[in-house]
């Protein structure tokens, strides 16, 4: 089971992290502010409200978090979401972003108190790396992009600083106190061997803790997230910022687990779910939204791990091409590509169809889109798939040039298992550490 410590991650591609939102005091109808202040109706405002003025939204041990800070993080969230977020949900996310910024501030402050330094040069290096990897942009271009969506490079750099500071603090103050015995590891190895051939599941989770006091509020948040995911929202994005589990930093990825490693409710759900299905289930201390990404058998070679050598023939459409205009092109593409007998004939065929050819080697069947996996398993060398794609992305046919049998499946090593147990314990202590920081903080 892959459980990871809270190391730096690209968190700005996602919605805000959820903790219990800060709530304002309310007044009853009999004690309305209008009555107590004797505010006359029909008045007017004298002077302008400048939205660019930075105002303190929270003060954490003397350090100010402004409305602008929240606006910049919110802009990242809205830009990263593929579906439109309802206005009511935006306000909920605002409150959650504020709590996330409070926690981030506490983590940076605690690291500083422990004389752990994160230099500007380190932050800049990390920022440049993720900017290039994720957006294929230079730092300058990415800074301009962030400004264009209502955010800023400074906001993202601070988030990176918080992640670096917290991970170093955990390494120094928490990890040294965690130990795992050889007997514990050997017991897990025995269970793996006993379960050889049994099913295991590749699962991702979004975990939200709940108490009797906030249970209803958390349930409403779960419903909002669940609805967004079903409409095409990114599970990884929501997990990275909403989930309170240690797996948030890796997009909620639990890795491959057997049912015995899961809480009873999640185990029951996983056994019933189809690949790609999403469910929300009650779990100890809260609610988990889980997605089943894949299934396989423990320590057993899986045919979907076969490595393929493919030739891709791609037919792309000019912008503005309608479905009616594309239909005869696709029909001809399908008819002609089904005549291919071997990869050697594919290049000439593609030339006649004005299509592009790309050679792809060492492609795992498991890594292909779901609809193509079984097609590939049934395909003989030299045969081609039916056309696959869309009007926007183009239509592709894959010709099977070769297939290597899947490698023998190996159980995780002694060292891997030990590290996983250590990571799990470190993560639990890190959550307690943050809880204590919240309790001791002066927040106004």
From TrEMBL:
What PROSITE patterns does the annotation carry? PPIC_PPIASE_2
Signal peptide from the UniProt entry: 1-24
Q: Which terms are listed as keywords in the entry?
A: Chaperone, Isomerase, Periplasm, Rotamase, Signal
- Residue ranges annotated as transmembrane are none
Glycosyltransferase is among the record's keywords: no
* Pfam families attached to this UniProt entry: Rotamase, SurA_N
Q: Give the domain of life.
A: Bacteria
The keyword Cell membrane appears for this protein:
no
Enumerate the GO terms in the molecular function aspect: peptidyl-prolyl cis-trans isomerase activity
The PpiC domain is annotated at 198-296
Listed name of the protein:
Parvulin-like PPIase
Name the species this protein comes from: Sphingorhabdus arenilitoris
Lineage summary? Bacteria, Pseudomonadati, Pseudomonadota, Alphaproteobacteria, Sphingomonadales
């Amino acid at each position: 089971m892959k459980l990871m410590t809270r190391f730096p991650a690209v968190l700005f591609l996602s919605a805000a992290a959820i903790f219990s939102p800060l709530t304002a005091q309310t007044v009853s109808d009999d004690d309305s502010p209008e009555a107590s202040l004797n505010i006359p109706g029909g008045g007017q405002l004298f002077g302008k409200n400048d939205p660019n003025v930075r105002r303190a939204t929270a003060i954490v041990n003397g350090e100010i978090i402004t409305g602008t800070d929240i606006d910049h993080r919110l802009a990242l969230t809205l830009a990263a979401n593929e579906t439109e977020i309802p206005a009511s949900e935006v306000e909920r996310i605002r409150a959650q972003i504020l709590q996330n910024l409070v926690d981030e501030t506490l983590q940076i402050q605690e690291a500083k108190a422990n004389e752990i330094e994160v230099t500007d040069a380190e932050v800049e290096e990390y920022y440049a790396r993720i900017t290039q990897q994720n957006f294929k942009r230079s730092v300058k271009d990415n800074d301009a992009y962030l400004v264009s969506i209502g955010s800023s490079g400074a906001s993202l750099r601070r988030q990176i600083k918080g992640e670096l500071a917290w991970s170093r603090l955990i390494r120094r103050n928490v990890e040294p106190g965690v130990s795992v015995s050889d007997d514990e590891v050997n017991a897990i190895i025995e269970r793996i061997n006993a379960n050889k051939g049994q099913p295991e599941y590749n699962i991702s989770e979004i975990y939200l803790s709940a108490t009797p006091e906030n249970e209803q509020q958390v349930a409403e948040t779960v419903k909002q997230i669940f609805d967004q995911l079903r409409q095409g929202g990114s599970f990884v994005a929501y997990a990275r910022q909403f989930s309170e589990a240690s797996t948030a930093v890796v997009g909620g990825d639990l890795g491959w687990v057997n049912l015995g490693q899961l809480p009873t409710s999640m185990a029951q759900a996983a056994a019933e779910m189809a690949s790609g299905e999403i469910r929300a289930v009650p779990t100890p201390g809260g609610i988990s939204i889980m997605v089943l990404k894949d299934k396989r058998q423990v320590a057993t070679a899986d045919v979907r791990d076969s490595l393929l050598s493919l030739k891709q023939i791609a037919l792309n459409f000019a912008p503005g091409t309608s479905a009616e205009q594309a239909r005869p092109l696709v029909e001809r593409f399908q008819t002609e590509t089904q005549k291919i007998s071997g990869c050697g004939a594919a290049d000439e065929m593609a030339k006649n169809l004005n299509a592009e050819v790309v050679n792809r080697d060492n492609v795992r069947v498991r890594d292909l889109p779901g609809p193509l996996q079984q097609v590939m398993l049934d395909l003989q060398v030299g045969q081609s798939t039916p056309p696959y794609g869309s009007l926007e992305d183009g239509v592709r046919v894959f010709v099977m040039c070769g297939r290597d049998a899947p490698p023998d499946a190996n159980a995780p090593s002694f060292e891997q298992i030990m590290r996983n147990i250590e990571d799990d314990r470190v993560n639990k202590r890190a959550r307690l550490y943050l809880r204590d920081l919240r309790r001791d903080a002066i927040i106004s």
